Amino acid sequence: MLSYENRTPAATPAHTMTSTASQTRASAPAPEPEHHHIWIVTGPAGCGKSTVAKFISQALDLPFIEGDEYHPKANVDKMTRGEPLTDADRWDWLTQLREESLQRLASGAHGVVVTCSALKRKYRDVIRVAPYYARGARVHFVYLRATEDVLLARVQARRGHYMGANMVHSQFDALEEPAESETDVISVDVSAPLEDVEREALRRIRDVVLED
Ligand SMILES: Nc1ncnc2c1ncn2[C@@H]1O[C@H](COP(=O)(O)OP(=O)(O)OP(=O)(O)O)[C@@H](O)[C@H]1O
Ligand SMILES: O=C(O)[C@H](O)[C@@H](O)[C@H](O)[C@H](O)CO
């Protein structure tokens, strides 16, 4: 479980507390986290969304939503044929991922980890409005950054996936890398070995939670 408990000492440093307050804290149940975080792991095909998101969800003991499983069959058929999706193909899918994420929080989860390519700013904006529907929800994007060459090599090496290497270029054509003004984005370079990428992503996520 993500150590949300770590936030308590951070919020109230021990040296500022009276002994009575310390005792109360020691016996009181851990407080509910104030914010419930929706972690959207993003990037083009092959950047490691599924692999890294599963790792994060396990490390933080949060539910995991595999965004690819929510594409309608028509979208999957299209990608299997090597045809890039259009904006129109993606809107309902993005809305559904936002709703599924909120549903997990409504069911009692303290957070949720979701994979979603979210290639363009306007796609990220669809998910960004989640707090409008659920006060206390916080959306963050974990953007897995890589060059086209790196992703081409990884998709070529992968077996049994509908997304072929012939689709990688179109993913970069569509990609609008998060701008600096998108302050809810953690950007992680994924050229490093997987273990390093996972450790770095988790470290950055924990930092965000501690700052919250
Ligand atoms: N840092 C890494 N170093 C080496 N290989 C990696 C790394 N990250 C992921 N991979 C491998 O690259 C391939 C693509 O990873 P993964 O399927 O998780 O990407 P994805 O972004 O979910 O792809 P898609 O969007 O197409 O489903 C997998 O075979 C995975 O094991
Ligand atoms: O927006 C898109 O074009 C899609 O979500 C793709 O990114 C794939 O679903 C994913 O990469 C699986 O290979």
UniProtKB/TrEMBL annotation:
GO CC terms of this entry: cytoplasm
GO MF entry, a single one: ATP binding
InterPro entries: P-loop_NTPase, Therm_gnt_kin
GO BP annotations, alphabetical order: carbohydrate metabolic process
Gene3D superfamilies, A to Z: P-loop containing nucleotide triphosphate hydrolases (3.40.50.300)
Pathway(s) of this molecule: Carbohydrate acid metabolism; D-gluconate degradation
Keyword terms, alphabetized: ATP-binding, Kinase, Nucleotide-binding, Transferase
Pfam families hit by this protein: AAA_33
Top-level enzyme category: transferase
Reaction catalysed by this enzyme: D-gluconate + ATP = 6-phospho-D-gluconate + ADP + H(+)
Chain segments carrying region Disordered: 1-33
EC assignment: 2.7.1.12
Polar residues: bias regions: 15-26
Top-level taxonomic group: Eukaryota
Family label: Belongs to the gluconokinase GntK/GntV family.
Protein name: Gluconokinase
Lineage summary: Eukaryota, Fungi, Dikarya, Ascomycota, Pezizomycotina
